[in-house]
């Protein structure tokens, strides 16, 4: 019979609290895996604040020479260092699970019952909420785009019948400001791009033209929208100044990030995403895009 190795004892040190900046006052601090010392109670408050902000990872806020440490603390380490009670463990674990689910899965909150809903068909806007149907006793459909009760044709992948229905992602991409990319000769680049693999919106803040998507881990060029590897290979001597291809225009369509692609990512298989081209489909009989409701 195999036994798991015992966890090493907590290490307490005499030093200032790196979360609050309070100097040593006679009470020892617990040393985290990144080497910074924190007060267990302040550690608990800090991590609870991160979870309330919708974060699914916990990180060190200590400043080192004017820069944030940012080292990730795994939940088991935080749980052990803060001595969370059973109710606190449940609170933290549910909060982290909800945040991770919202980040990695394409979920939205149903406007009727406030349940988390995932679409079966990522190309269809009309979604049928089974929870609302059970509560109200009548069918309830809403628009995935404007998040209002469905109006108009039975099926549509472009917009519903509500006057203010529009794709918020495409609107952001069409109206965002432009910027000159630092450390390059590229000017007038849109400051917000959709990841060419999964469609996550990414805003360029600083440093070079290459960014890495936090959802699908794709590294791509913010200017030409090619993968970083392809962009560098096409301009090996001066890839940091400009691209071999011209500046990509504002994006007018984005990839659909669905459950199938998420499974491929988790299995370590390459992603093959089709860009979604808006179209309108009319049907004689209503065919509901039944949402899978997740009560978390």
UniProtKB/TrEMBL annotation:
Q: Which Pfam families match?
A: IBR
Q: Please list the GO terms describing molecular function.
A: zinc ion binding
Which UniProt key words apply to this protein? Metal-binding, Ubl conjugation pathway, Zinc, Zinc-finger
Q: Show where the IBR domain sits.
A: 185-228
CDD domains attached to this UniProt entry = Rcat_RBR
- Write down the InterPro entries for this protein, in alphabetical order: IBR_dom (IPR002867)
Protein's name according to its UniProt entry:
E3 ubiquitin-protein ligase ARIH2-like
